[in-house]
Design a protein that fits this description.
alpha/beta; Rossmann fold; 5-stranded parallel beta sheet; 7 helices; 5 strands; about 20% strand; binds adenosine-5'-diphosphate
Length: about 160
């Protein structure tokens, strides 16, 4: 039984993230989407519970996928959860250097855990949570970028982006 962990900020989850979750759900027996908790480095738009709740609504049809919040080192957290694989998404070459560095560091921290990269569909390769937030802050249309199930509730939170 292989349990894969897909860690990220998901602030907010996009159609690109979901594409990766779907691919992972076909390759691995079980998948946990691990939402990062509060961070000293990053300031999030949505709380971790909101980010988790939005993903849960989008993955309810995928039986082997669940969503949890993690804190601390992902390698430690994955080990405790019984996971042996970390999944990360690759969009373009520009993701590669950062991801290579992180995967190499995680391997030093725990050689038992493999990082596996999945590529999204080309139509999502330009898509990032930060561009969604940028468009949303100007009240632009994000319907093509975020899952339909969460669109209205995300839009309702726009005012907080101006704060
Ligand atoms: P992090 O802050 O950990 O980079 P993100 O939520 O931005 O968290 O991304 C989590 C993972 O999903 C990363 O591996 C990132 O490269 C990947 N990812 C982000 N957007 C997309 C997309 N549009 N298609 C495929 N993978 C993506």
């Amino acid at each position: 039984m292989t349990l894969a962990i897909y860690p990220g900020s998901f602030d907010p989850v996009t159609r690109g993230h979901l594409d990766v979750v779907f691919r992972a759900s076909k390759v691995f027996d079980e998948v946990i989407v691990a939402v990062s908790g509060q961070s000293r480095k990053k300031k999030f738009w949505l709380s971790e519970t909101e980010r988790k709740d939005f993903i849960e609504r989008c993955v309810s049809g995928m039986e082997n996928v669940r969503v949890e919040i993690f804190d601390g080192l992902i390698t430690d957290w994955a080990t405790k959860a019984g996971g042996s694989v970390l999944v990360r998404g690759l969009r373009a070459v520009s993701d590669f250097e950062y991801e290579l560095q992180m995967a190499s560091m995680n391997r030093r921290l725990n050689p038992e855990i493999e990082t596996v990269f999945l590529m999204t569909q080309t139509k999502y390769s330009f898509l990032s949570s930060s561009s969604v937030k940028e468009i949303a802050s100007y009240k632009g249309d994000i319907s093509k970028f975020v899952p339909a199930q969460i669109l209205d509730d995300l839009v309702a939170k726009y005012p907080r982006l101006d704060a």
